[in-house]
Specification:
Two copies of one chain form a homodimer.
Chain A: H1 4-19, H2 26-33, H3 37-49, E1 53-54, E2 62-63, H4 65-89, H5 97-103, H6 109-118, E3 143-145, E4 154-160, H7 165-173, E5 181-187, E6 194-198, E7 201-205, H8 207-210, E8 213-216
Helix pairs in contact in A: 1-4, 2-3, 4-5
Bound molecules: manganese (II) ion (4 copies).
One manganese (II) ion binds next to loops of chain B.
Chain A binds a DNA duplex through residues 3, 5, 25-27, 35-43, 45-46, 57-58.
Protein name (chains A, B): Manganese transport regulator
Keywords (chains A, B): Activator, Cytoplasm, DNA-binding, Iron, Manganese, Repressor, Transcription, Transcription regulation
Organism (chains A, B): Agrococcus pavilionensis RW1
Chain lengths: 217, 217
Amino acid sequence: MRSTAAEDYVKAIYHHTEWQPEPVTPSQLATRLGLANSTVTEMVKKLAAAGLVHHRPYGAVELTPEGRRLAVRQVRRHRVVETWLVERHGYEWDEVHDEAEILEHALSDRLLESIAASLGDPERDPHGDPIPAADGTVRRPDAVLLADAPAGHEGAVVRISDEDPAMLRFLADAGIALDARLTVLGVKPYSGSMQVRALRGTVDVGPDVARAIWLAA
Amino acid sequence: MRSTAAEDYVKAIYHHTEWQPEPVTPSQLATRLGLANSTVTEMVKKLAAAGLVHHRPYGAVELTPEGRRLAVRQVRRHRVVETWLVERHGYEWDEVHDEAEILEHALSDRLLESIAASLGDPERDPHGDPIPAADGTVRRPDAVLLADAPAGHEGAVVRISDEDPAMLRFLADAGIALDARLTVLGVKPYSGSMQVRALRGTVDVGPDVARAIWLAA
DNA sequence: GGCATGATTTCGGCATGCCGAAAAAACTGC
DNA sequence: GCAGTTTTTTCGGCATGCCGAAATCATGCC
Ligand SMILES: [Mn+2]
Ligand SMILES: [Mn+2]
Ligand SMILES: [Mn+2]
Ligand SMILES: [Mn+2]
């Protein structure tokens, strides 16, 4: 049971706890994977039988150590591929995800490591997500969600969620990229949006954006 | 109907007529693809319904123009990947086939062309097989099968079949590689093997090898 | 404690690719 | 031309992943 489907499921489960550590429910998984709830229930049962996840009926889904190993491996593959596409093939950071989603299952370990080596064994991908090492080691940078940062907080952007390519383009236009320095000016009451100073000027960002950007702590 | 299975089938059909132009039978396809005859019969029916092949029951299988286009595209992808693995990732020529067999289905057109461009748009792969151009143009070098070459014939190796990795290693050890100059010394009666002079000395090659090597005409 | 609501699971079904066994057709040698 | 062999096709079946509809469970509210 290490099909490409299984690889995507454990990756989605891992992903959910990577920045906020709450266990993931089947319906959340279904949403992220774009599948029906019933499909996820069935697959989770198979993953549990294969020893990749823990799951009691009607409960949340959690990775076993073996499932986590597979997930971390898959995350490494995904992020190495994304980095390679940007660094070596002229992709923009909002164009890499779909291609990586497929390639991550197709490359041999040997080829993936050769590509990683040719990139100098990068430690983060184009969105700032940490790339696990080949031995499974993961380093999580200390970071604060922009939405949680108090007025006056100032810090470099260390991660931007790659969920929404359109948002990535919006941010690029606004001059907000990895390593850009941001200052939180304040929260606009009732609008839910924040005022932020970037190098290029002041920007209003809505709650979706504020939950997609992490600043150095 | 352009699944990875369909891509492999049309490629196998194309492959059969690439160097000897006889139409391919279902059982030959089954052998090449490592599948049961019944499986091939069924898939051929589906390919015919999709307009990729012509097939009358109990007859041979031939590509339609559309099937040929898909096959040529797939051959390009396979050979570009093999070339890339050898040129950029330190693979030996006997190690590339299986990885290419998978990757050829996973790369986007954009990425494949970016890789091809980074290699200088190569015209032949590590075994000497011609790489079709991106527009579908195919150039076939004039070549004679070693098995068909008369005693005294002398010419450069322009192609070595990549069917059998062990044979490729044997040939590499014997100093027979792409562009090596060979002279046919003669056929050993009753043994079916040929005597051939290479740079490194004289070699006896059996019929399998003699049918795997093409010399410049 | 009972009940409405939403999440989860079960169930029947579908698509794709594959197989072996059996039936049908096509060759082959005499 | 015909019997035996080989090839091809048909048939029933299996595995993987997916779906929608219906049943079941958990929960929170009164
Ligand atoms: Mn991604
Ligand atoms: Mn994927
Ligand atoms: Mn090959
Ligand atoms: Mn293939």
